[in-house]
Amino acid sequence: MNKLNLQDKITTSNGDKASSASNGVKKTTKTKMLKGKVVSDKMDKTVVVAVEDFVKHPKYGKFMVRTKKYKAHDPENKSKVGATVFIKEVRPISKDKCYEVIYK
Questions:
Q1: Is the CB of residue 73 less than 8 Å from the CB of residue 97?
Q2: Of these four, 14, 30, 34, 102, which has the most CB atoms within 10 Å of its CB?
């Protein structure tokens, strides 16, 4: 009985179940935004963005730069190599692309 009541109060992001009027809890997700540099623009409507992260080593305490590459959707082919861009997480567009370039 307790599990049933708890399930009734949970709301999903698409609004399948209504939240209880007393607590008004809503499940929201924050989209991930990253800033990086374009390292490749040879693909059509796709760029490779290198994102640098400054992290502390868990054991030794030394700070180091970690670089990760993301493939991002660039629908207008505006971004060129060397440009600094913002990318945001979106639904999967292909096997490797889950980010989209934000134009400002």
A1: yes
A2: 34
pLDDT of 31-54, one tens digit each? Answer: 889 999 999 999 999 999 999 999
d(CA 94, CA 98): 7
Contact 97, 50 (CB under 8 A): no
What's the alpha-carbon Rg for the chain, to the nearest Å? 20
Burial of 86 (0-12, 13-18, 19+ CB in 10 A): middle
All domains of the chain in start order, with CATH: 1-27 (no CATH), 31-102 (2.40.50.140)
pLDDT at position 54 is: 95
Structure tokens at 91: 């639904």
